[in-house]
Each structure stands twice: as C-alpha cells, then as structure tokens.
Amino acid sequence: MHPSFNIVLVGFMGSGKTTIGRALAGQLKRDFVDMDIELEARAGKPIPRIFTEDGEPVFRRMERDLAVELSRRSNLVIAAGGGIVLNPDNIRDFSATGHVICLQASPDEILRRVAASTQRPLLEQGDKGKRIRKLLNVRQPLYNAIPCQVETTGKNIADVVADVMDKIPNSKQTENSKEEK
Ligand code: S3P
Predict the structure, then answer these.
(1) End-to-end alpha-carbon separation of the chain, Å?
(2) Distance from the CA of 176 to the center of ligand 1, in angstroms?
C-alpha cells in the first residue's frame, strides 16, 4: 500500500469502527476522522435530529459529499457510518485512494454493543434486536463484498487493531513513514 493511502473502516453499526479507528490512528500517528461526528458538526445537530428534521435522504447526501471530500485527502484513518455501503460510489471512491476494511460482528454482539445507545435512529423503531437482523438481511451482502474483512466478535480492542494492521499491506512502513519524512 502507498504510505499516504487512507485507511477506511466500514461495517454495521456497533462493529467497532470508531473505537478501532481511533486506536489505529493513534498507533499509526495519523489523523482520525469519524464521519458521523464530522456530519453532526457540519449539520450543527446530532444524527437523530438530522433524521427526524431533514430526513434520511438528506443525511445520505451529506454522507456522500463527505465521502467524496475525504477520498481526495490522504494519510487519514476514517471511520465511516454503517450505511456507507448503501451507495456503491462511496466504496469505489474510498477504494481509489485508500484501503477499505470491513469490521464484522455477530448480531448478538452488535446488540450487546448498541443496547444502551439512543443515538442510532435506524435502531430506534421497535425492538433493537429485530431491527438489527432486518437491516443485516439487506446489508450483509454489501459488507461481505468488501475484499478485506476483520472479525471482531469476542475480541478485545488490541486484538482487533492487530488484525486490522495485519490486513494493511506494508503497515510497518506506513507506521514509520512520518518519522522518515
Ligand atoms: C447508520 C449508521 C450510523 C449513522 C447513522 C446511520 C446506518 O453510524 O451514520 O445513524 O445507516 O447504518 P454508526 O455505524 O457509526 O453507528
């Protein structure tokens, strides 16, 4: 991998993108961008309010515009939102300038991780476990289509970060690239 390539984490809600992305960025001494946090800052309101006040299509448009913008930058670790795979253009653009890695987790593990959260509007409509399974029915093929996969179920943060590093070609070189410059 070219040392300046972005590293883009995708995966379902609760798959660990933010937690792993932040740890990875620290280890690689790269800037970290969490797309959801960035979109909330730009909209001036939390994601649940973007969904209720503006609607999901507006959120997807903002997400798409940010994906285009970030894919033109370099040297970032990016945690995408869970719905980034819904628009294949996002994956195409991220793949052109970055290494896209999909984090996977079982539905039970996802439910455990998101159980206490009220910040995910797509999981707030009825029983969370049922919503997770319903969304996964549609989306699992899209996540599975990403060539680079890391399983996170039952693993701690350090183990997942190590597994992600193993998937990044020349990650040692990438890790040292800042000092070499
Ligand atoms: C979404 C996932 C969320 C956030 C929004 C929609 C999705 O991000 O972008 O609530 O469609 O899966 P996380 O995966 O970071 O929770």
Answers:
(1) 17
(2) 32
